Amino acid sequence: MSSDKLIIDYKNLKLAIIDIFSTIGMSRDDAELVADVLVEAELRGIPSHGLVRVKDYLGLWQKNRLNINAIPKIVNESISTGLVDGDNGLGMISGNFAMNVAISKAQNAGCGIVVVNNSNHFGIAGYYAIKAVEHDMIGIAMTNANPTVAPTFSKQAMLGTNPIAFAMPTKNESVFLADFATVPIARGKVELIEKQGKTVPSGMLQTADGIPTTDPSVLRQKGTILPLGGDYEHAGYKGYCLTAIVDILSAILSGANFGNFVPPQVSYLPDKDYYPGKGLGHFFAAIKLDAFRPANEIKEYMDLWIRSMRSATPVDPKQPVLIPNDPEIEKSNFHKKNGIPVLPEVIIELKNVLNELNIPIPDKLSII
Amino acid sequence: MSSDKLIIDYKNLKLAIIDIFSTIGMSRDDAELVADVLVEAELRGIPSHGLVRVKDYLGLWQKNRLNINAIPKIVNESISTGLVDGDNGLGMISGNFAMNVAISKAQNAGCGIVVVNNSNHFGIAGYYAIKAVEHDMIGIAMTNANPTVAPTFSKQAMLGTNPIAFAMPTKNESVFLADFATVPIARGKVELIEKQGKTVPSGMLQTADGIPTTDPSVLRQKGTILPLGGDYEHAGYKGYCLTAIVDILSAILSGANFGNFVPPQVSYLPDKDYYPGKGLGHFFAAIKLDAFRPANEIKEYMDLWIRSMRSATPVDPKQPVLIPNDPEIEKSNFHKKNGIPVLPEVIIELKNVLNELNIPIPDKLSII
User: Fold this and answer.
1) CA-to-CA distance for B349 and A126, rounded, in angstroms?
2) B241 to chain A nearest CA, in Å?
């Protein structure tokens, strides 16, 4: 594996992704949205949710497992809630739609909760949560995902990495955005560690027999990821509860597939024989600050929270206390200025898929 | 420390607690509520949130730091939201009130979110969350708490153990209730481990200098609890995000004190010199199932979720896969039948406080 990365301007990367999805017949608006979410992940330094996904989405489309002309619909609603059918499209399409509905509900009712079924991978959860912030609202986004995680005392993959994103408006400080998978490590990161010949920190993985391990290769041998915390002794049952809550809010409420029934989001894994629900599920919430106290007061108070945490005594004065979103904002600014580093393998794999599907390779990707 | 526990019938324990709070002038209804929450903790096997708290509440009252005649008030509301002032009473009083408001909002609007400021310790979060279930609603309860936890890269206690409770209705299975502090270990548990001469599992504590340790005595020497996950390498920043989210929802939205400004909930710790907000804060939400899909369908689907997790392959066939609330229901049934085990020290400490305050010792506690 080469580690010499190619540098691509983020605007060109976005245009290339728009080209690809437009070519296969997705509407321009939808293609722009998909590209925007994927490039936002690259900008924020989360390449596992960026360009690398394009080949996966194309693979699902090729096998008729993904509707690229999906039109999400509200199938049930109340003044503060909504249920959306994602029409088996990409999660970006239904997710963006559903978050907008949640914001509009919150505008009228104070808060809004919208869940989605019949959807697919939606990229980074933070993309949706942060949309609420410009409306002076808290934004929350969750999704369930392919099973890789074993519940406490089990050795079977039953739950996904089920992320939570939480965005909170501020006055002068940067927006607070916490966006994290509810498991200690992502599958992609384990694969990277294996390629580097390193070991995984303790408390993150177990073998197929349920023995805790630091060996990254176990995930290719029916091993599983442990919940956040690790095993029972290390309070991993709390991480399990958290992952379970995201699954329940995303899928049980909406009627999507839950747990180990979540449809695979890559085409090399076969479609399952049986689905109790519809597609993959998401959960979105918007909470209007003004419904509680004047938004300006709350945002000033949030600034105080951030400054208070920032001024906590650091262990190492050279490593300041972490404020969620600070590192991602810094990375995003850097990548906007200096371009996005992409592994050549990612481009090569994508070009192979494009060639196979007779899709022209966008000019912007002709750098290799 | 003696470990021979006394056995008290749970109904007698409740009557004793009602007696004590009635004697100092709390209304009978409020005293019953406080007793109910504390005894529910004992029944569920969480004695750190049970009888042991009575002396703490009395101590705060004695120092005029707690209003035992508090009348919680809605100070702002919309169709789906509310802000409650807890009138500096116990969190049971404002918490019960606020959760009822959230349920009533959800009944009309689909969902309800109510936050509370100017409150105090509310006992176990699960008590409030589960109230929504009989109305065919999801219930969520959170609170912030005294600072004991260091944010990632810090060695200063800036956040509390900030629990989340999430209750989900079921059809034939037991109610799903996840109720967990968002940190790997409670302070009380660390103290117990120290008394037993044992060590704490790795990834839970750090010394005053920020060095990870398994030595439980560090909490008495300005050491801190690490977020769920542990240090940065072990993904503790995810646990930190989670604890932060609970703090923001409970305190920033409501105008309660946040982070290390949360007022001490024990009288031996002095009141702080400066408070940016009002008291301690809580967050409650109710989500009506029928607003999304027929409640009955959702509850049947939740049964399927539970049975699916229960049937996951266990590591050890003798130790079935954990379903949140299963162990607590079993303990509760056992304690209802066989009585609640109480440490003699807890009774002795309480009697000393009662004597000091000239409060008659309830008959039901005259067992030592």
Assistant:
1) 49
2) 6
